[in-house]
Amino acid sequence: MNRLLCGLLAAGFVSGCGNAPTQNSASSAASNAPQTVNVVKVESRTLNTTLALPAQVTPYESVDVYPKVTGFLEKITVDRGSRVHAGELIAQLSAPELRAQRSQADAALQNAEAQHSAAEAKFAADSATFQHLAAAAKTPGVVAGNDLQVAEKTAAADNAQVEAAAKAVQAARDNLRGVSEMESYLEIRAPFDGVVTLRNLHPGALTGPASGAAGTQPIVHIESVNRLRVTVPVPEAYAAGVRARQEVSFSVPAYPGKTFRAPIERIAQAINQNTRTMQVELDFKNASGEITPGAFATVDWPIQRSYPTLFVPATAITTDLQRTFVIRVRDGKAEWVDVTNGVTANGKTEVFGALQAGDTVVANATDSIRPDSAVSAKEK
Fold first, then answer.
1. Contact at 8 Å (CB) between 288 and 304?
2. Chain segment 179-225, per-residue pLDDT in tens
3. Given this model, what pLDDT does residue 280 score?
4. Mind listing the pLDDT tens digit for each residue in 39-58?
5. How many independent structural domains does the chain possess?
6. Residue 76 neighbours by CB under 8 Å, 6+ apart
């Protein structure tokens, strides 16, 4: 019995040892077989597409209207939503002290003019006296020489008084003009055509530079609505080739499906160091008042290149958290090629790296396909 058991065990051991090499050979052959991958060709074309960029709609002109002088708000003719025209009276202040200053300035001018008239009359009289004495002095012994000199000096002094009085009159006129201009500031007028978007004060309020806390807030805020600025922060990568007067399309949430167009009017020509964007403004004529200032907009920003670049499907680009690359297939081997992404257009992404048009790359790249591994290319 023991001999029979030993014989069976020995036979089983030999049989197991005989099968092991066969299984290992099959597993090794499977692991060495090339991996089949779908591949695509690298394309070369000149980029001409649009990119959706966020933008802000702002009024072309916007101003807080402050009083230039201190006074009581006597009346205000506008409120939030009122449309105003340039030069239109929107508020009236009252300041009794300015009327008093005007009266004083007017009286000072009249006094200066009276003094000027008196100086001119005295100069005329003394000049006539001097002329008379000078004529008489031509006859020897008629006029003393000292009297002639006194008359001449008196006329010269009178002339100086006339000039001084004339300057005093001019100063008084300037002072009166200044007070009149200050008084004109009591009438507050719209600086441009627009809409009142904010009103802070009501009749009876004390306002102005010397009115304390009330003077720190504007009477009203006015914005132009017939002309708008659409400000687009263009990323640095897309700022090249921006052309003035080029028309650009944009949309706003208030009008789904509707497209507006406006030309590029102002280009900052400088990259903001914090945001790495360049501010570009479109000039939109909003004659119908459809778009409200302050609205958010989406701009179809044109992106064009003057030279051809390379494109691959977005799925052909992958990363291993250290590098971004595509997998090129060459001579049955996988090769990682580092790339930098550009713009995505028509389902394909622009890439920059050591590639050439017509190169074969894996259509669905993954870092599981290691460099130098054997692959079998299958055209997708």
1. no
2. 888 899 999 999 999 999 999 999 999 998 877 776 678 999 999 99
3. 96
4. 999 999 998 888 899 999 99
5. 3
6. 90, 91, 92, 199, 201, 202, 203, 219, 220
d(CA 363, CA 40): 6
| CATH number of 341's domain | 2.40.420.20
Global pTM reads 0.68
Angle 224-230-233 (CA atoms, 0-180°, nearest 5)? Answer: 140
- State the DSSP H helix or E strand holding residue 217, giving kind and residue range, or none if neither: none
Is 180 found in the same domain as 134? yes
- Please report whether residue 27 resides in a domain: no
Q: Are residues 268 and 333 in the same domain?
A: no
Sign of CA dihedral 209, 213, 219, 222: positive
Residues 6+ apart with CB under 8 A from 306: 46, 241
Distant-in-sequence, close-in-space partners of 28: CB < 8 Å, separation ≥ 6: none
Mean pLDDT to the nearest integer, 242-254? 93
Is the same domain home to 313 and 355? yes
Same-domain pairing of 272 and 289: yes
Indicate the residue type of 278. M
DSSP annotation string for 249-309: EEE-TTSTT--EEEEEEEE--S--TTT-EEEEEEEEE-TT--SPTT-EEEEEEEEEEEEEE
Asked if the structure places residue 82 within a domain, the reply is: no
DSSP class of residue 182 equals H
Q: 108-131, pLDDT tens digit by residue?
A: 999 999 999 999 999 899 888 878
145-184 and 96-136 helices cross at what angle (nearest 10)? 160
Structure tokens at 87: 């030069």
Percent of the chain scoring above 90 in pLDDT: 62
Residue 142 binned pLDDT confidence (cut-offs 50, 70, 90): low
Residue 320: domain span: 35-47+307-379
